Amino acid sequence: MFKKLSTILTILSLFKATQGYVCDSNTCKPPNCMCASPLPPGGIDPKDAPQFVILSYDDAVNDSTFGILQSMYKGLAHSNGCPVVATHFVQNIYTNYHQVQQLHAQGDEIALHTFNHSKGASLKEIQSGKTVLSTFAGIPESEIKGFRAPFLYYDNNLLQNVQDLGLLYDSSAPTVRQDASWPYTLDNGISDDSDCNANGICGTLTPHNGLWEIPLYSTFYSPTDPHSMDLDYDSNLLNVLKENFNFRYNGNRQPMAIAVHAIHCNEPEDKLKMYREFIKWCIGQKDVYFVTYSQLIEYMKNPVKASELAGHPAIDCSKFNTYKVKSDAEICDGIDNTGNGMIDDGLVESCGIGNTYFSTCFGCPTSEPSIDNPTPQRNGNRITIPAQGCSEGTWDPLTSSCVSTSGSTYLESISPEVITTDENKNNVGGPNSSSSSGALSSHLPTSIFTISLITLFINSLIHFM
């Protein structure tokens, strides 16, 4: 009985999620406004579009998580030499800022997850989190562009706070459909593809013009069984991930998301190995790229065919050409400049104030950073990175200048494992075939999808009664 009721409620939730979203593509025009659509942007045929994978981590970066991140995806690169990158939605509490600086220096994106991991955080808390990340992790404020709500709880006030801070995107809304939308702007509210029912806010969200929503793309165990984060591990998980990838790759090529809390990625240890195996498998498919969330929006603003993607900001990693190693002196920039295997050797300060412990290149504070005082006075005279960062080279907090040194580039120094893509490789079936296992449904137009849900709901209700 309860199983039947659960099925009915799931179907009803999906049915409700298909109602209410209206966007006129004649008035909402890229790049400043984009309607939600399951089809690739720019009218590109799905078979010609790139397949993006977005890897994200939530919560604190510290000794408990940093090694897990390194083991899961670091040291892997695409055929073009650019590394696999991720986006980190960082909370300030319990975070080690020097480790955040290292992730950013390795090409990852740093985004916001509130200061104290607060549900329904105030504008001040989100702003303070941004300020602390810039001050103690050396992330240019101009490069902190995104937000994810703790507990995935978002409402109109929270989205307004994100917009008021001038952030580029939010990624808090899990999808409830396999064939969900590509990223879109919130000029017309949250799309039908996202689960506003979970927070009880369907129909209450006002427009937030120009603010992008990158849906938290769920992994589906079946067409009506979405999981937004932290998948349970069993012997079939790798196949489930591959089936979800193939559904997108062989369909409308919406981005695939791997969204996790790093602390759960080695429980058990085989889970971490499985994720790395899956990432390497993905890179081996034609036209597949792991990108940051901001890079994905760069693509949405200027979509091109996969065959024309070379040099596009969405997959570009040219910034590494200005990060030189094997120089005469180490710089406190999150990179091993001298090539001795030690990052920022002898330059990092360890801070312990109150209940806060972290390392930083930018001087220890004399009191604990807080929401009300995110930038307390610091010891020494190290200078915070400028809001716009360095147009070339890397910021040296000791000399208060952007520095370019001679020597090999960062990517040459780490010699990443480049996964060669077989350009003749096809995935399971042709570009528009369904999943190999048959467990995941093919795309239905919204109207047919809605009608099917109504029919299924009525039949299930009759059977239940």
UniProtKB/TrEMBL annotation:
<feature type="compositionally biased region" description="Low complexity">
    <location>
        <begin position="426"/>
        <end position="441"/>
    </location>
</feature>
<protein>
    <recommendedName>
        <fullName>NodB homology domain-containing protein</fullName>
    </recommendedName>
</protein>
<dbReference type="InterPro" id="IPR011330">
    <property type="entry name" value="Glyco_hydro/deAcase_b/a-brl"/>
</dbReference>
<dbReference type="Pfam" id="PF01522">
    <property type="entry name" value="Polysacc_deac_1"/>
</dbReference>
<dbReference type="GO" id="GO:0005975">
    <property type="term" value="P:carbohydrate metabolic process"/>
</dbReference>
<feature type="domain" description="NodB homology">
    <location>
        <begin position="49"/>
        <end position="167"/>
    </location>
</feature>
<feature type="signal peptide">
    <location>
        <begin position="1"/>
        <end position="20"/>
    </location>
</feature>
<dbReference type="InterPro" id="IPR052740">
    <property type="entry name" value="CE4"/>
</dbReference>
<feature type="region of interest" description="Disordered">
    <location>
        <begin position="420"/>
        <end position="441"/>
    </location>
</feature>
<dbReference type="InterPro" id="IPR002509">
    <property type="entry name" value="NODB_dom"/>
</dbReference>
<keyword id="KW-0732">Signal</keyword>
<dbReference type="GO" id="GO:0016810">
    <property type="term" value="F:hydrolase activity, acting on carbon-nitrogen (but not peptide) bonds"/>
</dbReference>
